Amino acid sequence: MAKCKKCNRNTTACSSCDGGKNLSNALGALTCSNCGSTGQVCPEHGRHWK
Ligand SMILES: [Zn+2]
Ligand SMILES: [Zn+2]
Predict the structure, then answer these.
(1) What pTM did the predictor assign?
(2) 10-46 pLDDT, tens digit each
(3) I need a surface site. Which of 1, 12, 18, 32 has the fewest CB within 10 A?
(4) Contacts of 36 (CB under 8 A, 6+ apart)
(5) What ligand has the least distance to the C-alpha of 43?
């Protein structure tokens, strides 16, 4: 489980790409604007946890 480097909270699975599971569906383009393609988001800082 990854943690946000800003607030040290446990990150949660991104709802937009289902925790990164759907990232590989888009023609190999591993992008998700919601989580920054990490599959994880901070409940406080969103994609900016890393
Ligand atoms: Zn995502
Ligand atoms: Zn955070």
Answers:
(1) 0.69
(2) 999 998 888 888 876 555 566 788 888 888 999 888 8
(3) 1
(4) 47, 48, 50
(5) 2
